[in-house]
Amino acid sequence: MAASFDTLRFHLGRLGWAGVAGAVLIVGSMAYDAGVVRPREAALEDQLNRNAQARRTAEALRAQAASQADAGVAARPP
Questions:
Q1: Whole-prediction pTM value?
Q2: What is the mean pLDDT of the chain?
């Protein structure tokens, strides 16, 4: 454990404060992406899928109503 900590300190020392700050920003950005952005994108994708399904269902119902109306007009005697 101590050897890995020493290795980490060595590499962080080589990076300098600016490098450490950059590494912290990168790790923080990755954590934010995994914790906030991806779940939000998944929720939006689910909503888009539900909206698309609702549009398809509404279109099918309109087509069915139109065909029934056409059949009713054709069945009436002149």
A1: 0.57
A2: 88
